[in-house]
Amino acid sequence: MSLELFIARRIHFSKSGERRVTTPVVRISIIGIALGLAVMILSVAIVIGFKKEIRNKVIGFGSHIQITNFSSNNSYESTPVAVSDTLLAELRQFPGIRHVQAFGTKPGILKTDTDFQGIVLKGVEDDYDWTFFKDHLKSGEILQLDSAKTSNDVVISQYLADLLGLNLDDNFLTYFVQDDVRARRFRVAGIYETGFVDFDKLFVLTDLRQIRRLNGWADDQVSGLELTLNDWDQLEPVTEDLYFTMAEKQDRLDNTYYTRSIRELNPMIFDWLDVQDLNVIVILVLILLVAGFTMISGLLIIILERTNMIGILKALGENNGSIRKIFLYVSFFLIGKGMLWGNVIGISLCLIQKHFRVIKLDPAIYYLDAVPIDLTVTSLILLNAGTLIASMLMMLIPSYLVTKIDPVKSIRFE
User: Fold this and answer.
1) Spatial distance between the Cα atoms of 136 and 311, rounded to a whole number of angstroms
2) How far apart are CA 209 and CA 152, in angstroms?
3) What is the pLDDT of residues 281-316, one digit of tens each?
């Protein structure tokens, strides 16, 4: 053990000769670091959780990548594109793609005896990935599609059910305005609730053959294809590769395929989520500065109370660098103790919120019914490492005071 570390341990762990000022200041410094790190852990966990929850809900309604007709606009009254079995097989073998499914959309007006509401009828096939809607199913069941006949069942949101007074097994009419107004009667087979009101009030899921019949499409025509990826982090490179691959292809009616990622389809939502990163950075910097200044004031008082000891050490031949190292070790012990308690507090609060959902939210405003938590080992390690490094760098400022202490005057200092 080095001399500096030995003296630092004696200063930090020894209870003898402790003065009235040092103890409360040290405690305040430790509490400042502990609370600062706990708040940073909570902030990062909440923002990561919030972004992940919202992202997953947007993906649940539209998948990672969509391939549509190049002539389609951004409305739900889409221009169809023909999809062959060969193309589907090729896409399923494309690197990074986990699942491929066809869909069709048709805007309409859902009407009951007393109310009406504009909706988008989304048609799916029997290979549709229902994982997202199963996780958010409130009552009933998902669509059971029969290959022999077209189903009249639909899955609607709890928002629409409450708005229009619909329950399971209720029948309702939906009107579609085109060259001539058409009406279809549907039965409520299931009710889902994601909390994402912007989408919940819009989408009603049904058999894709209903969309084809309404639009007069052939059996191989769809609004587009939805592709699910194995890894979200590969969204941009896979989309780019797929874009150039599909741009060279045309369907049997000479339509060109258009590939877009979910970020391109919902730019406002994802831009809004990206802004949350800036908010977290500002919060982390402010908290770190407050905690750092608390530690700086604490170390300054410790140095001032050890002025006599510093003078003796200088008289015995210790240089300024060695003495500064002693107080940097003391700072390390204090910061370490504060970080230990900060981790205990922060992780405990995260676990309580994650498992018991204590703090609730209004889904109409936040798209979530409770504060989300997503705390990863990586973010925890980075937060601890960043806090320790930043705090130790800030401790270099007060430790410079050691060089200004005169050994002759300091030995007589009381």
Assistant:
1) 69
2) 10
3) 999 999 999 999 989 988 988 888 888 888 889 888
Long-range contacts of 47-52 (CB under 8 A, 24+ apart): 47/276, 47/277, 47/279, 47/280, 48/374, 48/375, 48/376, 48/379, 49/371, 49/372, 49/373, 49/374, 49/375, 50/276, 50/368, 50/372, 51/273, 51/276, 52/372, 52/374
Q: Is 116 helix (H, G, I), strand (E, B) or coil?
A: strand
Segment (H or E) for 381: helix 377-399
Q: How big is the chain, counted in residues?
A: 414
| pLDDT tens by residue, 330-368 | 999 999 999 999 999 999 999 999 999 999 998 888 889
The string of DSSP codes covering 268-325 is: HHHHHHHHHHHHHHHHHHHHHHHHHHHHHHHHHHHHHHTHHHHHHHHHTT--HHHHHH
Q: How far apart are CA 106 and CA 104, in angstroms?
A: 7
Handedness of CA 324, 287, 25, 2 (dihedral sign): negative
Q: What stretches of 35-146 adopt beta strand conformation (E)?
A: 65-69, 81-82, 97-111, 116-124, 137-140
Closest by alpha carbon to 252, among 85, 103, 74, 99?
A: 85
- Using alpha carbons only, how large is the chain's radius of gyration in Å? 32
CA dist 174 and 160 (Å) reads 13
248 burial type by CB count under 10 A (0-12 exposed, 13-18 middle, 19+ buried) = exposed
The SS3 assignment for 216 reads: coil
Partners of 81 in the beta sheet?
222
What is the amino acid identity at position 211?
A: I
CB-CB contact of 155 with 143 (8 Å): yes
Cα–Cα nearest to 237, from 66, 95, 62: 95
Separation of alpha carbons 411 and 99, rounded Å? 77
Structure tokens at 178: 């085109």
Closest CA to 119 of 152, 160, 161, 75: 160
